[in-house]
Amino acid sequence: MRAIGVDPVADTQQCFRTLVAAMSRPGTVHETPTSPADHAVLATLVDHEVSCYTTDETIKTALANEGRLTEASMTAADIVHATTPTDGAVETLRSGSLTEPSEGATIVYRVTELIPESANSSATTLSLSGPGIKDTRTLAVEGLPASEATSISRAQSEYPQGVDVIVATETALAALPRSVELEVQ
Amino acid sequence: MTDRQAASSTPDSVDALLDGVDADGLAGYNYAYLDEHTKREVRRSILKSIAIPGHQVPFASREMPLARGWGTGGIQASLSLLGPDDTFKVIDQGSDESVNAANIRRLATTTADVATTSDATEASIIQTRHRIPEEVLSDDQILVLQVPITDALRRVDGSDSANRRRHAHKNYSKMWVALYENIVEYGEIKLSARYPVMVADRYLMDPSPIPRWDVPKLDDADNLFLFAAGREARMYAVPPHTSVTPLAFEDREFQVERFDAAACRHCDSTDTFLTEVETDDGERVFACNDTAFCEKRAANPELAKAHHHDDPKAWGPPTDPAVPYGGDTPPSTNGADLGGDD
Amino acid sequence: MGYVAVEAGEEVIKRAEELFEKQRVDGDTEPISVEQVDEQLSRLTAQAMSEGGVYAPRLAALAVKQAQGDTAEAAFLLRAYRSTLERWDETPPADPATMEATRRVSPAYKDVPGGQILGATKDYTQRLLDFELTDDTAADPTADWDIDGEKPPNLQNVLEVLRDEGLVHEPEDDAADTATEDDDTADTVPGDDDTAGTGTGNNDPSPFDTTREPITFPAPRPAILQELARGETGAVTALGYSELRGYGQVHPTLGEVRTGNLPVTIEHPYTGDEVQVTSTEVTETECVVPVYEKADDAQFAFGYGLVYGRTERKAIGMSILDAAIQLDGDEPAQNAEFVIDIVDGIDSFGFIEHLKLPHYVTFQSILDRIRAIRDRAAAATGDEEHAAVTADD
After folding, report:
1. Does one domain contain both C257 and C371?
2. N or C: which end of chain B has fewer CB within 10 A?
3. CA distance C360 to B98
């Protein structure tokens, strides 16, 4: 992972803590220790015990060189790397079963900007409530079309089955676990 | 590594493991003892557990140099979380000084180079066996609870696969029937610790053997709770601001433990969880179970449990059953009709 | 003082460890060497390896010495050590036909191709304490045997005879028509066929590894076999016995029991050839059970056992449990979840002994409940007496 600027021990530990903070408080934005943030997340979570879908050659090579890449199609993968919005394909990802909902996929989107508690953003604005959120929280995501956000909401509509979403900019990330109620404004 | 080389660095206990580390520095072991592969497995399961509050996520639990049943799940969780900037507190039944807590703390300090503390307000990560600290935790703290038995439904069925199906369909009727039968037989719900709770109105959860006293702290908290079971290989979580409701009936409300107007003999507190001790001369005295907070209260009897917060949130009711519980956490806990005069 | 927590810092832990060590070194005798344990107590070290899940005879001897002979403790040391080892490859499946068998008996047939080879065993010897061992001359009774230089033979497994005749039910046949025990077949989520609960794709050629993947039930047979192979010897023996004793339908005939050195090969990282890197001493057994699942195509049910070392009772117990679990049923040894939950020695040892840890908080909570219940009962009795008194007024 050093090849892509990620210290395999220290940076992954910090990135993991970033993910914990983001998942515990959906819609809050947190800086990752290395950039780009989506690479940091994959370097932290992916090894050969989980299947991964990505078209990003840099991260693919970095993982494969360490024997940490088990590839799968988008609909079969445990961890999906979306360098561009999926055009609604997020609704076809693995969502786990009722007895084993944790087998649902994690999808990491590469987006442009994250604006927390945004009032009048032109970017897709999400209103969130549920575990981890005191009342409601808003997050605007530049680089995620409203249609994709609606698809995410549908992919997460069969709780506890569903997919867990991470949105990552160059330097930061936020999380939308399947437990949140997501409204696209 | 040949047998011969290996034989000289076999860890027999945390003690000998650390002797080896002292000698070779951290060169013999990865940072925080666990290899990165193990950490990834634990970390993935932690993230999934946060995303599905109250659901038990299976993870490939590794053997640790501590025996199963002694906190191997908690250790795997803590060692996967800890970084050199963290401050770590470990308590066992409320005490920092218990032998097992000291052992776990040593493993962390030596392999993860973390600072440690007994002050619950200073720790970024607290690993605990069967208690939640008296002081209200804040939003940048993580509490890792050690879990021996992962499923509240284990009380009514020994089969995990049958229980996982019940959780899948939110079918908890067997538990409700068991509680009802308690009341028919004993007049009371006789469950003590490990009191079953509903999380986010979806999953029935076993909060680990914390006393009922601590259960209301899980509801709408500012901090994250992680529940880790090494032997049973399950991880579950309660994120902040998540509803956690103990099971009860309208006419048998959830009750915490009460201590008959007793106060702690060290610090005189009447609003902390106490444990009783039989003295040599046959007397029964009570003392705060949270020993670190007891020291603070002995120095400052007026110290609020949320003294380090702006919002004066209270955790835990008064010990005297006659004193009405006016905390912000529902439900009322002195609704018990003991049939006599208090 | 009465019941107080064991409060101490590192000093007390250290002292307790030193007292434990004192028990080993306190006598007048010379310290036993690791080599002596390895050579002279090999059945003990084999049990530790078998329950520890790692084949390393010298390490096992060290563990046994350190644990002062306690097999659970020795297995625990090995498991904890194994956890720290980096895993870098898997071997191709090892073929038991390549085993150099030093012992092979077949109870199913009077005579078998390759012959009945008794090997090293005390099965037919009378169990009389040999007091001459107190003056051990370590004389080798086979010293003047006329042993030819031939290597032990590769022997065909007796069960192949039965398989060729089509009499043995192959467990792989079940995979095709295993119905899911989950009742979420009503789910209409596309692509969701989570039946075996393994988490790895159905096309994954790697064997299921319970140390890397958590088990959920129904569990795949490789996971069950792995847990049995690593299981605590007493537990596997006792549960296997329960089947024979009447709590089940498995009274097997052993096709054979064989002990020998099984070559371990890997794929050479550069040439790709299979090369032997070492061999492990194992005991293998296969059994057939006259329980026929299909009346119109009667086949024996079948069980397999394989353990490190020469603990035959564990291999046989394992094969009984394999067959029992495949047959399924209400008896304890036929319930996969029950067997796998309790058969692991490190889990059972840890959890049972954890009861020694302080539990005074939970106990306080329990005391609160029993007092509340008793108060309520006393109050109810008081009310009744009061009511009785007033009625008489």
Report:
1. no
2. N
3. 12
